[in-house]
């Protein structure tokens, strides 16, 4: 049967009805739980949860024109996140045209990203003690509410006069994405809009989170960052030239305690390989996908969805720390010096 003749069939005829059901049947009935997570990176229950949250808002108004049901649209979007493939390839898998894949991915991505306020938040006053205890259990570093760092997401050259601002120091085009996580690898804050050439400290200094910390909203809690960040009373970094055993002990503890952020980037990019391989979309369409993947990551953690690798698991290697010369004022060292003397001198 030709494509044109298939398109002319009514909704009540078997070939079209079978085609409509292929996606859902192949996913929910053909694959067991492990196979399903390997292909879509979350569990069947999580897909049904997403459908319950926003499925009614993306439900087609008619059954004509091969309309896809919400669960099918969610699966197409998740498969795109899970492979990093061109949308045309995803379309071939699900037997729909590339423009339809583009619309579906954009529609579902916006819905997931809009759940950000429900799943990505800095620890509340009630949560901070538990978060701090989790970090303290790693290497004895006190009062930590998060580890902060940036990771690069590859993109195509956006073109135009500003395109070179997206070329990072490794030589490829990217967005530089800042995240804060807790010791359980839950993402607590994310900024996904800066060009790859922008330094980590610039992103932080311009962020609403920095303003909150400056106001003392989280005092006496602190963040831990690498040497690319300035040392401040609320953002503690390694000592560049430790001279005493206490300073060396501080550095060892600081580095081990902020390790969850490095682990997070590896876990996130293994769960959603599109973030590893890169996103060949318009630059304006990429930040929502990054945020949506972060939301899904936190949902997966809350629902205890393990990452199940496909046949060719990724090896994720994050960039090394770029050490910056220290030019902070003495006042910015007060908290760090106090911690060294109080917790690491013995």
TrEMBL record:
* UniProt cross-references to Pfam families, sorted A to Z: DDE_Tnp_4
Stored PANTHER family: DDE TNP4 DOMAIN-CONTAINING PROTEIN-RELATED, PTHR22930
Query: Which cofactors are required for activity?
Result: a divalent metal cation
Give the GO molecular function terms. hydrolase activity; metal ion binding; nuclease activity
Entry protein name: Putative nuclease HARBI1
Q: Where in the cell is it found?
A: Cytoplasm; Nucleus
Does Secreted count among this protein's keywords?
Answer: no
Q: Which GO terms describe its cellular component?
A: cytoplasm; nucleus
- Out of the domains of life, which is the source? Eukaryota
Query: Member of which family?
Result: Belongs to the HARBI1 family.
Q: What does this protein do?
A: Transposase-derived protein that may have nuclease activity. Does not have transposase activity.
| Assigned keywords, A-Z | Cytoplasm, Hydrolase, Metal-binding, Nuclease, Nucleus
- Domain (DDE Tnp4) spans 148-298
Taxonomy of origin reads:
Eukaryota, Metazoa, Ecdysozoa, Arthropoda, Hexapoda
Xref: InterPro entries: HARBI1-like, HARBI1_animal, HARBI1_dom
**Main location, first listed in the record:** cytoplasm
């Amino acid at each position: 049967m030709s494509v044109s003749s298939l398109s002319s069939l009514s909704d009540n005829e078997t070939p079209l009805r079978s085609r409509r059901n292929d996606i859902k049947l192949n996913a929910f009935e053909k694959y067991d739980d492990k196979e399903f997570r390997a292909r879509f990176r979350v569990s069947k229950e999580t897909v049904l949860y997403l459908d319950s949250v926003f499925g009614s808002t993306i439900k087609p108004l008619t059954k004509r024109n091969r309309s896809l049901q919400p669960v099918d649209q969610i699966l197409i979007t998740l498969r795109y996140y899970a492979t990093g493939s061109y949308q045309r390839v995803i379309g071939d898998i699900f037997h729909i045209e590339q423009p339809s894949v583009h619309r579906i991915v954009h529609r579902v991505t916006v819905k997931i990203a809009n759940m950000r306020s429900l799943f990505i938040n800095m620890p509340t006053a009630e949560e901070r003690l538990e978060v701090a205890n989790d970090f303290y259990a790693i290497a004895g570093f006190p009062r930590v509410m998060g580890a902060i760092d940036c990771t690069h997401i590859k993109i195509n050259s956006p073109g135009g006069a500003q395109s070179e601002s997206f070329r990072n120091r490794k030589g490829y085009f990217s967005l530089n994405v800042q995240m804060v996580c807790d010791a359980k690898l839950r993402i607590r804050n994310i900024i996904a809009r800066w060009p790859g050439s922008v330094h980590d400290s610039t992103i932080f200094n311009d962020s609403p989170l920095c303003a909150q910390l400056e106001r003392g909203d989280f005092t006496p809690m602190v963040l831990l960052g690498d040497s690319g960040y300035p040392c401040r009373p609320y953002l503690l970094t390694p000592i560049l030239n430790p001279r005493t055993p206490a300073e060396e002990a501080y550095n060892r503890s600081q580095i081990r305690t902020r390790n969850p952020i490095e682990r997070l980037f590896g876990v996130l990019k293994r769960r959603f390989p599109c973030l590893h391989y890169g996103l060949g979309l318009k630059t304006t369409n990429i930040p929502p996908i990054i945020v949506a993947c972060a939301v899904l990551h936190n949902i997966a953690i809350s629902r205890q969805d393990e990452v199940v690798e496909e046949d060719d698991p990724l090896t994720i290697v994050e960039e090394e720390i770029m050490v910056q010369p220290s030019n902070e004022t003495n006042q910015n060292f007060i908290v760090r010096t106090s911690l060294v003397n109080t917790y690491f001198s013995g």
